[in-house]
Every structure is written in C-alpha cells, then in structure tokens.
Fold this protein.
Amino acid sequence: MENSTLISIEALKKHFPTSGGRFTALNGIDLKIGKAEFTGVVGPSGSGKTTLLNIIGSLDSPSEGRAMVLGLSISDLNVKQAALLRRTRLGFIFQSYNLLPVYTVFENVELPLLLLKLNESQRRKMVMDSLEWLGLTDKVKSKPAQLSGGECQRVAIARAMVKRPEIVLADEPTANLDAANSHNILKTMVRLNSEFQTTFIFATHDDKVISYLKRKISLVDGKVEKDEITGN
Amino acid sequence: MKLLFKLAIKNLTGAGLRTWLNVIVLSFSFLIIIWHKGLLNGWDRQARNDMVNWETGTGQFWQSSYDPFDPFSLTDAHSKIPSVFDTLITKGEIAPVLITQGTIYPRGRIQSILIKGISSAQRVLKLPGELFLKSNDDLPVLIGSKMARDNGLKTGDVTTIRWRDVHGTFDANEMKVIGIFDTNVPSVDAGQIWVPLDRLQKMMGMPGEATILVCGNFDTNGRTPEGWKFKSSEELLKTVTDIIKMKSAGGIVLYIILMSLAMLAIFDTQVLSIFRRQKEIGTYIALGMTRSQVVGLFTLEGSLNSVLAALLAAVYGIPLLALQATKGMSFAGTAKSYGLVVADKIFPVYSLGLVATTIILIMLTTTIVSYLPSRRIAKMKPTEALRGKLQ
Ligand SMILES: Nc1ncnc2c1ncn2[C@@H]1O[C@H](COP(=O)(O)OP(=O)(O)OP(=O)(O)O)[C@@H](O)[C@H]1O
Ligand SMILES: [Mg+2]
C-alpha cells in the first residue's frame, strides 16, 4: 500500500429495494486500494463481494458514502462518463467468461480496441501481444465454442488486458475451472500484475485464488471484517 | 456508427438459421410487392397505350350534346365538322366519328348496337379503316373480335341492319362484315359496328357531320370551335386509370399481410435475442459501450435483416422479374370479358422509383420493428444483465 491510491472508498453503503423494504448489501465500507495491488475481496456467499466490485467497476452506484476510482467519484458519473471510464481504464473478467460466441478469439480480444477506435495495425499488434501473454497465438481463429474452459478464461483475460487497463476486476474467475486450469490462470495474472503494474481485484471464495493474493479483504454481511496483507 | 455496423453484421450473420429464415421471408415480401406493383404499372402503361391508340387519341372534340353515358343524347349529338379542321382531316390527323344507334339481326336475334362511322383516310386510331377502300359492297362493316364472338359473326357474313335517320324515319339495309379486328379495348369492340363515315352520313342524312373528332399528334392550340367541347386524353383515360388505382389500393392489403408476417418474425427474433443475450448486453456495457449504443446495435442488427433481404431478393429476384418483364404475364382474357382494358399478356414495368420506395419503406418498417423491443435494453441494469437474470 506504499503505492499511490487508485481506489478510495469511504462509508460506502448499498441498499437494494426488496418486496419487504430494502436490503443492505454493503453496510459501511472503508477501503483504499493502491497501484499494482493483487487484492481479493473474500467472504461467504451473499456477503456483498460482487456488489462491491460492480460499484468499483462503475456498473452500479453507491447508495450512500463515496467511491473514488482513478480520481473519479462513481456517484457523480453520468452514463457516458462511466462508459468512458470502463472503456479506457478498467478491465473485467467474469466467472462465465462472457465471450461473444459468434466472434473468433481474435475478434473477441479486438473488441475493446474497436471501441477505442484504434486503427487496424495498432489493433492487430495489441491483440497479438495480448494473445501471446496468454499463450493463445495458435487459437487466433477459433470460436469460443471450440475452446476449453481454461482457454476461454484465458481469452477473457486477454480481452481484459489488451487495452492495458489500470485496474482489472475479476469476479470468481476460477469458479468454472478445474484446479490445474485455475492455477495456470492465476499464475498468468500474477505475471501480468508484476509485468504491467496492473491492479487486480478479485471477488472470490476459492482457496486456490486466495492462496495467490497479496492482500485479503474479508467481507461479512456487507462489512469489512478483516483486511490483511498475506505472505505472497 | 461504423463500428456498430461492423458488430451488427457479425452478430447477424453469426446468428445463422434464424437470421436466414427472417431474411428469406422478408425477401419474399420485397419481391411480391415489387412484382405486383410492376404488374400494375405494366397494365397501366399498356392500357393507356391501347386506349390512346384505339379510342381516345391524344384528345377529342365532342359535339356539345354528346354524352357517352346517355344513348338518347345521340339523336342530337351531331354537327357539321368545323372547316378549320379540313386540312388536318385530309392529312389524317383528325378522325371524325359519327355515332348513332341501330339494330342488327345476327342469326335471327335482335341486337341493339352503336353504329360508328369512320373515314378510311384517318391515321389517328388503329382501326383498320383502309379495309373499306378494298370493298365494293354497298354497306361494308368492320367489327371487333369480341363483337364477332358474341354474335357469331364471321368475315363475309351478311346481316340486316336497321336505323333511324335524321328525321326519325326507320330505314334498313343489308350489311356485310368485311373484316374483324383484334383490340384490347372493349369500348371500341363490344356492341358496335364500324362503317365508312361518308356512307353513314348518307344513311343518316347528315352530310359532313360528326359526333366526335379524335385528335392525333398535333397541337390543338386550345382552339375549340363553337358548339364543340374539348376532352383531354387524361380525362378520357380517367375511368381506366381509376380502375387500376383501385386495384393498386387493393394491393395494399396484400402488402400489409406480407409485411406483418415478416415483421412479426423479426419482432419475435428481436424479443427473443434480447432476452437470450442479456449477458452479452452486460458484457458490451462492461467493455465500455453505453446502453444507447447497445440499443443502436440491436436495432441495427434487426434492420440489417432488410438489407440482407434486399440483397437476397436481388439475387434470385432480378432474374425472375426480368424473365417476366420480357415474357409477359398471361391473363387469358378473363379480365377483358369484364370490360377491362387488358392485353392477353401484360409486361410488368419496374421503375427505379418503385424499387427504391419499396426498399426504403421496408427498411423503415424493419428498423421501427427492431427498435421497439430494443428499447428495453436502455432500461436494463448492467449488473442484472450481466447476471443474465432478468425476468
Ligand atoms: N439487484 C439486487 N436486488 C436485491 N438484492 C440484491 C441485488 N443484488 C444483490 N443482492 C443481494 O445482495 C447481497 C450481496 O450480493 P452479492 O452478489 O454482492 O454477493 P456475493 O458476495 O457476490 O455472493 P456470491 O459469493 O454468491 O457471489 C445478496 O444477499 C444478494 O441477494
Ligand atoms: Mg458474487
């Protein structure tokens, strides 16, 4: 945490309307996350991990308190500004990969660059670089349906990394993978983290993931119960 | 926009069978609408040509009492042909026609008819008046093929004809059919016979008189002589064009049914795809697209159906339509017996305007139909779309 702060969360609460009133998923979170961290939000199911990641990712907004991400207050962003933030500076990795089935591996990874309106040669170089980091250069023309789960998640990581975002948010990235693939992917992410100084934030309750974390933020019932630097 | 276009094409073609079903249905609509319109255009063109060539000319002067819908007006509807037209008549540029009522007795039946006198010199109408010149008969007569069929008359047949002259006195004679002409215009064929103008003038005791003057290709200069009224060809064609317009209007029902089917298929696909592709929608948003961009993407995907359909329709439609335009479409006399001006074969006419308006209309409707369900995306929460748990 000696690095500069990228994310600063103060007294953050998130309520969801329910039939019987409202449900408080995040109940007063205070948190700072710095550059190049490899951090995990861990905790039992329903503790609010995904909700927290969604707010950091500007996909959702706080009900109370403040969430500053890369110098921007999430509550104050309009739709376009939030989209711009995600487009330029954030990467997402999902449990179920969320690859576009009709696109090839190359096209899936290229999409974030298309949204950035980069030209063809720039795109090609960045996509190939990214696929190389993930060891996918021989799968360029494959469609997601032709890949294994591990390969799909590697494509998803390539897609998240291709624009070299400052923060990558990964919600249960290993939940659909076997042990070997999980370790493989986590090692890759550790490597990318140190190589590019990209901040990784996980939401997980997978021990395999936890064993790679450098910092573990434990959430219980929407509150930070423990926040510890681990041995890695 | 270019980006959305690229993505939309990819998604659409990637969707496979369902896309192609929609595109095929839509391409049928394109073709049938264009073909049907083309056929009506072809009919309109042919009917106008036939009417101008056989009946109306480029316009007509009517003796002021003449009313084609009132046979009794014929007793008074005759006047001296204005002398200003003498040269035009000799040159064949004006065809004076004298019209009166009469009765014939083909095969012992009584048949009330119109007797029309036309000069053999006229070059305005296609009526083969020159045949009169070859005949030595006392009262040579030309009839149309429908008239011949209806009354069992053949070339060379002789029948009694009765008429009343200018004083109202009955007179009778033997007429001889010297020729039968073929026309698509029933109003110069059914229930009438054509005789030499001078012969009819003599029979009626109306020397130098006519009922109407059919104009050929010359400028009337707005000169309408005393006691005559001018009818432009547009006025004279109005009944025919009205019928065709009515047929066109009837076609709209067909178009609406066709379009509804195609649009229903597209609407259904859109609703389904928005429901099934929630995660994808969430992913687009997570990657930094705004919701309105995603709405645009899905709308574009839907409306591109019509672009693909237009292309597909072009592939199999152009040869088909071209074949029809050269071979024509046979109507085997059905419509003609209803008194419509229909050729045995109609050659469809496809104008650029027709094709363009059809394509634009279909694209517009498709876009609207694609947009309506896509609006839902704008109301989706990205977090819920990502979970794919809506509804
Ligand atoms: N849109 C919503 N409406 C109502 N309640 C919600 C909504 N989203 C989340 N919740 C509730 O908020 C709580 C936290 O949800 P969240 O998804 O953040 O949990 P999580 O820690 O990610 O759990 P898991 O490990 O199962 O993924 C849960 O009890 C959930 O039911
Ligand atoms: Mg979760």
In short: Chain A has one domain: 35-61+79-229. Residues A 49-50, 171, 203 surround magnesium ion (ligand 2) (CB under 6 Å).
